Amino acid sequence: MTTTATAKQPSSGPVLDWSAGHGPVTGALSATTGAFALATTGAATAMPPGWALAAGVAGALGHTVASLRVRNAGRTLATRAASWLVGAGWTTWAMTHGPLTWTALGSLATIGVGIGAAARSAALFEEAREEEALAAEQRQIAAELSAERRAIAAEWVERIQRISGITVRVLGVEQWPTGAGYSLDLEPAGGITYDRIAQDSARLSADARLPHGCTAVASPGIHQGRVIVDVTTVNVLTEERTYPTDYAPLSLLTGIPWGYRTNAENVLAYLREQCALVVGPTGSGKTNMVHTILAGFARAEDVLTWVIDLNAGSAGLPWVLPALNRQLTREDSRPVRPGVDWLAGTYDEAVLMLDAAVKVAKQRKMAYQDLLAQANTDLLPVSRQIPQIMLVIDEGAEILASSDRSMRKLAEKILEVIRIARAMGVRTVLTALGATGAVLGNLMIRREAKVRVALTGGETEGMDLSKMFPGTRGLRVDQAPYKGAGFMGTPESPAALFKAWRILPNQIRDIIAATSDRHPTLDAVSATAAGPDYARRWDAERTAWMRDHTAAGTGPRPDLAPRPAGSGLNLSALRGEPAAPVSEEEELARRFREQIDAQFGTTPDPDTRPAAPPARHGGLNLSALRGEQNNPAQSAALAALLAAGPDGTGASAIARALSDEYGTTRQTVVGWLRDWVKDGTAVRVGEGTKARYVHRQHAPEQPPEG
Asked: Is the whole model's pTM more than 0.85, yes or no?
């Protein structure tokens, strides 16, 4: 019988490490006991005394050679050689006159004390010698660095004097650990402030022959009489960096990373009390930036994210659909939670969300008075138990500036959340298409949105950086011509160049899966205040718009057009009501839905079964329906495909026709159509948004097999 456990042996005393080296005490003890044992044995066996002396001389020579190889000090060499020779001399004398006399024992003890004291002194001398050698090496390195720093300092003193007409004294030069540049700590003469140097940033950068995208930016120093000039020598904004893949837990209180500066260091957004504003024209990487923001919130353990996007929910759908469609699985078979806690893609849902946010803020003010008093603060202590709600509103700044009556009502609710909910842990992140007066004209936005991002992408129209970052000089759009690059300023970090990470669709799915257990739940007080509007946010009827967007094409829809009498089988009875005309907004929604399907895929209905191969002879043939009697919805879908004739139809039209009677979703129909294309029942015609499906019976004649 074998076992993996090892029985614990009883301790029999102190454990000795026989592989350890000797110190002054153990070395002296070992030398004296060895000499005494050798002298006693030699005297008893009549050993020639000269042997002990010869052994001592050999030991002294051996240790001297070894010490020379490791370059020990002369004091160490002398101590070790003397110890061997003195020990050998005593052993020779004791073997001749007897080692058991009081004279022999007393002299041996004296020799041991002397050897220990000499060894300790030599060890201390060696340590001091090594420390001095290291210090000398560091002084040499410092001297070399100091020479480089002095050269940099002299260069910039002359440059600032020549370009700006300002005399400065350089107090320090710090090389960045990333190797992308350095910082100068300046003290201007004559009461000059940092903004005088900042206004010449472009001229100083040009005079220093810095690469494109590299700047010399002046910012306030430790006090008003000091200036920090950050000089970038390597343009890290040109390269595309993907979002970090460690997905480590974050906290709102320690900052959420939104990108990296030109010195390659992460720039953090502290949003416990501040709101944020992100502007960027089309093509600047604003949507990617929103996904980066949502990724940071998903990783935070004390944040719940609510998203409003009236453009078909495009900002939040990639964070919701993989979980709702069961495209992600975990080892314990538990469902994966969406990456955001609530998504509103319609006006009515946005109203419910904003009303809930107002109720939560007001209820928290009343219910947590004792907690505020206990913590001696007027800010609600945010934690996993009481998470902060971050309300991300895509193109929310445009809602605030809209003149539409319904949008004005929505804007009033957004401003109410911003106005009353700071202390109670509800903050907003608004996005906009440009930094214009219409966007920044609202006083509430200018006062509360202290975390600001301007993604330029080289676009100059509608990018007034002086309005976006008032009081900051030297910022130019052409400094950040790259997609995803721009300027970011926070109360802790002045406005400066930065770039957002590129977050890929597969990373969004990975973050959803990795952070599913990390999301907090809304505290009981807030959940009660939010009521059923929050509790039922993921109900099927509330999320139907996420699954049932149409994407069958942008041209005329033959399956919805009136058909002449006798033109074929009409399944209008399955639709429950006549099809309404398709508006331009619905058409855009269909195209967006198809892009989402192409990017993230869909999940077929688990009851899907392959349809039987169609007959190859002419005429209407419903034999394919016989194998689907156990699934009436699929039979009706195949009948609709047959009824569409040679013009074909799309998944969205079939789903609408069946939704009233069977409740079939578009994703389920897409799964059926894919299976029918594989087994030859249907033929896909066209690509992209113009794709449609035609039953094999109405498809162009195929060449005979064999």
From this structure: no
